């Protein structure tokens, strides 16, 4: 039995009629109510006394099927406060089928406006004419910041969001120096651009050639996968101004004596966060040790001149300090980074679905069929974490009659070449790929990104999501992520927390740090110091 309390009411209440009992000791009716009912009535009376509640401010930021977890853009969360998360319980088996959406807060990419033209950046007139022929007149924010620093002879680390125009930010100063300085004709390259993949190398070479054909400079790309004879053939013929290369192919060429880096004016490391990871780090170190990197602008002049360095990326490279400290003074590197670096893109809708592994294929098929019906001609990228998954998924799409192509790192070079180019030309709409397609590739026709396998790191997520909503894209862009494993959930919780707090993603580097010394280095320094004493 619930404890009872007694209230004397002046009027009859039909809602409480079932609790009504008359007392023989009083003229007034006595209603006996359970305590919980009384507390409920008190709460309702308090709400009425407080008046009408104001509507929640702003547009919807986080949309969920559980309305109590929705968040509006006008709502704030303290720096040390942990917001309620939809994904908090996603490690439990009952969470299958749950989802939430980070909605689009802007219609366009939030770049700082710039009213200046390339003519205000003191570039060579011949280069300005080449830009005008390509209908490129207004620099982006990152180009406006990076180009003057490079023209002044500074070593630069440029970190900005994907699709912000970083290629021209470093390419225009490179071409300007070749045009304005007395660079003698040589079979060895005057400028070197290192890229992590053949696909990005082909793209950068294409952009450079469109400019260089107008100003009389020579560009060449050297990539691996074709054997020694094919690589050696690339270094025969006319003198070379700009060399675009992958690290493996270039290092082999250096060992074979087919190229020298002693005449370099510029060295550019594009998509540096990938070049400095464990896959390429030793190769990059081997290449940089065969170059001479300037530590100050005066090193760029005279007979003993050295090469100017530009490090470019969409996320801050972790291993940059360890490698560059061996070839140049870290204090000579000026860092230029966007204020929105490592933030989620506010102009791209991002959907997260908690699915069983066995349900992902059906979900993908439904999404692709809807996409083909509602958005014909728009590209869609389906990302997987391994080459084997790409191949398996391709076989499944073949069985369902969905036209697509595959792109993964284990393909022979002859098969890989041209796949992304044909995708850009809209010969097919669906590309199933690994992260090889997430770094730096121009994807203006991509409308949707699907993370069939959730990425392994937050940096990988930013790069994949950056394939949509790029500068010049006609589509607003959507990212759909399938979340299956417990480690996926941990990353999603960090993403959701950052979205609700409107903060950058955690754990990503934001500046160059002094490299941590190993125990062997510390011991050697101590022995040297004791001998000097």
Can you tell me about this structure?
The N terminus and C terminus are likely disordered. The chain folds into three domains: 47 residues, no CATH class; 206 residues, Rossmann fold (3-Layer(aba) Sandwich); 220 residues, P-loop containing nucleotide triphosphate hydrolases (Rossmann fold), CATH 3.40.50.300. Strand 18, helix 15 and strand 19 form a beta-alpha-beta unit. It has a nine-stranded mixed β-sheet, sandwiched between helices. The protein is built from 17 helices and 19 strands. The N and C termini lie far apart (88 Å). The radius of gyration is 30 Å and the shape is elongated. By secondary structure, the protein is an alpha/beta fold.
Describe the protein's topology.
Blueprint: E1 4-8, E2 20-21, E3 30-34, H1 35-50, E4 60-64, E5 71-72, E6 99-102, H2 125-133, H3 141-151, E7 155-159, H4 166-180, E8 191-194, H5 198-215, E9 219-222, H6 228-233, E10 242-245, H7 247-255, E11 266-269, H8 272-275, H9 281-288, E12 308-313, H10 320-324, E13 333-337, E14 349-354, H11 360-374, E15 379-383, H12 387-399, E16 404-407, H13 413-416, H14 419-424, E17 430-433, E18 446-451, H15 458-465, E19 478-483, H16 486-501, H17 519-532
Parallel strand pairs: 7-12, 7-13, 8-10, 8-11, 9-10, 11-12, 14-19, 15-17, 15-18, 16-17, 18-19
Antiparallel strand pairs: 1-3, 2-3, 4-5, 4-6, 6-14
Helix pairs in contact: 2-5, 3-4, 4-5, 7-9
């Amino acid at each position: 039995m619930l404890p009872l309390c007694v209230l004397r009411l002046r009027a009859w209440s039909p809602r409480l009629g079932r609790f009504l009992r008359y007392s023989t000791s009083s003229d007034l009716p006595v209603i006996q109510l359970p305590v919980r009912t009384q507390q409920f009535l008190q709460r309702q009376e308090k709400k009425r006394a407080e008046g009408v509640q104001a509507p929640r401010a702003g547009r919807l930021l986080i949309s969920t099927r559980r309305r109590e977890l929705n968040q509006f853009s006008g709502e704030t969360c303290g720096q040390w406060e942990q917001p309620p998360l939809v994904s908090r319980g996603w490690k439990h088996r009952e969470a299958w089928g749950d989802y939430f959406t980070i909605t689009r807060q802007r219609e366009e990419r939030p770049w700082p406006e710039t009213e200046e033209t390339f003519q205000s950046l003191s570039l060579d007139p011949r280069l300005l004419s080449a830009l005008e022929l390509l209908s490129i007149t207004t620099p982006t924010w990152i180009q406006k910041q990076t180009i003057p620093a490079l023209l002044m002879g500074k070593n630069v680390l440029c970190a900005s969001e994907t699709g912000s125009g970083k290629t021209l930010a470093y390419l225009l100063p490179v071409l300007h120096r070749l045009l304005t300085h007395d660079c003698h004709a040589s079979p060895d390259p005057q400028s070197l651009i290192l890229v992590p993949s053949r696909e990005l190398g082909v793209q950068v070479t294409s952009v450079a050639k469109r400019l260089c054909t107008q100003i009389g400079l020579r560009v060449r790309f050297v990539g691996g996968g074709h054997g020694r004879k094919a690589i050696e053939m690339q270094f025969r013929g006319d003198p070379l101004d700009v060399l675009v290369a992958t690290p493996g192919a270039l290092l082999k060429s250096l060992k074979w004596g087919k190229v020298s880096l002693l005449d370099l004016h510029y060295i550019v490391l594009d998509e540096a966060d990938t070049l400095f990871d464990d896959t390429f780090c030793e190769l990059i170190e081997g290449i940089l040790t065969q170059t001479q990197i300037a530590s100050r602008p005066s090193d760029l002049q005279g007979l003993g001149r050295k090469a100017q360095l530009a490090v470019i990326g969409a996320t801050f490279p972790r291993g940059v300090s360890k490698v560059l400290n061996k070839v140049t003074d870290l204090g000579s590197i000026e860092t230029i980074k966007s204020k929105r670096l490592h933030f989620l893109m506010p102009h791209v809708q991002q959907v997260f679905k908690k699915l069983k592994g066995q349900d992902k294929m059906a979900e993908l098929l439904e999404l692709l069929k809807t996409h083909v019906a509602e958005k014909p001609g728009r590209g869609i990228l389906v990302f997987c974490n391994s080459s084997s998954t790409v191949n398996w998924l391709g076989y499944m799409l073949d069985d369902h009659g969905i036209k697509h192509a595959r792109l993964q790192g284990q393909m022979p070079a002859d098969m890989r070449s041209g796949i992304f180019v044909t995708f850009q030309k809209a010969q097919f709409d669906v590309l199933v790929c690994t992260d090889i397609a997430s770094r730096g590739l121009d994807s203006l026709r991509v409308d949707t990104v699907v993370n069939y396998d959730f990425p392994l790191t937050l940096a990988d997520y930013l790069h994949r999501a950056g394939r949509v909503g790029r500068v010049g894209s006609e589509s607003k862009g959507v990212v759909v992520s399938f979340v299956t494993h417990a480690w996926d959930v941990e990353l999603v919780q960090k993403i959701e927390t950052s979205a609700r707090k409107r903060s950058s993603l955690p754990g990503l580097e934001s500046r160059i740090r002094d490299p941590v010394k190993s125990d062997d280095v510390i011991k050697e320094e101590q022995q040297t110091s004791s001998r000097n004493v």
